Amino acid sequence: MDQNDLARIVREVLARLEKEMDPARGGKCPHGFADVDEAVEASVSAQATWHRDFNIEAKSKIIGGLRKDLLDHLEELARLALEDTGMGRLDDKVLKKELAITKTPGPEYFTTKAVSGDNGLVLEELAPFGVIASITPSTNPVASVINNTIAMIAGGNAVVFAPHPGARRSTLRAVEVINESLARQGAPCGLVATLTAISMENVDKLMRHPKVRLVAATGGPGVVHAALSSGKPAIGAGPGNPPVVVDETAHLRQAAIDVILGCSFDNNLPCTSEKELIAVNCIADELKKHMLENGAHELKAASEIKRLRELVFDDKGKPNKGCIGKDATWLLKQIDVVVPAKTRVLLIECDEEDPFVQEEMLMPVLPMVRVADFAEALAMALRVEHGFRHSAAIHSTNIDNMSLMARLMETTIFTKNAPSYASLGYGGDCPTAFTIATSTGQGPTTPLSFCRLRRCTLHGAFRII
């Protein structure tokens, strides 16, 4: 081998290594990290570049490309989430991902506030926090990753995800698809990263890392409490138990259809979904008739209800995790009840104290409670929502009833005369959010939620009049 051959081989090796390290030329960005420090350091560097070197137009173009690329993987990611968790419905998971991709706001959501007066000009703008730690749930793993990614990087942040162990494969694949798209478009490596070694120790270390500036946590009370105890600004998605009230003025057939659609959406996994139905007695029978005609199956026999209780509650009286997010037909099959495949909801009449009413089931089992009038319905809705102030709904044509319930419930999300998912952007003119921050007050999150306010004052100048 002469010197020319040796030089050629060295050039080829160097070119190959350069390509592997250069995303813009087809290489891959490292995005999955077993070590928390490595993940955060990669994101710190990426965030600095993203914020400094990419203007609003560049960010908008890259996020637009990301949306297009994610749509190409829509069914793959939905199917993987279903296989990974064993929870939900494929058709609804496809819809959830599509909502997250198309209706999560981007950089266009930001505006600058300018106020001039006798003393000059004041500008107020929203700036990134920096690196965000995002703890994602098993109930909406891929939708949450997509939704948070777009909202967080739109504001100039980087994000490190900590997946739920029950949704590891689908979360890691979603982050991989996101990174492939960002890399092709020249975004900095590490902008969207994820932990691959999933443990409470690593999650805690991530949330408390000195270079993590904000924590966003969706999950059980323990995870949200840990986020609030991290010493960082936190966005916490707390629990819910959303009641839906149907009064005597409602359009009953449409109300029945809407309640079934909302309750059964992804088998009741969204925390905003209808969890208990409170119906004024004079219309309850007709409402039930329409529900049974449109996808509900009522369990009446005491023996069947007893078997269902034994199936869906554990020995502590809490929802059985093995039943969360399962189809209504699957639940019924376990208790030897055969129903048409189109059945979406299990309907059970019971009283207010029943665990079906008191517990957030996260499965398409809808308890129905009769009340004498709207005043009793509202009082009960306030009690069974447990003061979480998360979500509630009403079906009515009485403006006074709708207004009073909206005011007194004080919920972050309140839906009138539509399935609950209208407030997530499906059939409603609002942006999509899968982090509903009730505990910390940000509400349905947008890019604004992940930024901090900065004010600049110029004394004595730039006033036109």
Task: Explain this structure.
The chain is an alpha/beta fold. The chain folds into two domains: 29-238 and 445-455, Aldehyde Dehydrogenase, Chain A, domain 1, CATH 3.40.605; 243-424, Aldehyde Dehydrogenase, Chain A, domain 2, CATH 3.40.309. 43% of the residues lie in helices and 19% in strands. It has helices at 3-21, 36-53, 56-72, 74-85, 90-103, 141-154, 168-184, 200-208, 221-228, 252-264, 281-293, 302-312, 328-334, 355-358, 374-384, 399-409; strands at residues 32-33, 113-117, 120-128, 131-135, 158-162, 192-195, 212-218, 234-237, 243-246, 276-280, 296-298, 345-349, 365-371, 391-395, 413-416, 436-437, 443-444, 451-459. The strands form four sheets. Strands 11-12-13-10-9-14-15 form a seven-stranded parallel beta sheet, with helices on both faces. It has a six-stranded parallel beta sheet with strand order 1-6-5-4-7-8, with helices on both faces. It has a three-stranded antiparallel beta sheet with strand order 2-3-18, with no helix packed on it. The chain is globular. The protein starts with a helix and ends in a 6-residue tail after the last strand. Residues 13-26 have low confidence and may be disordered.
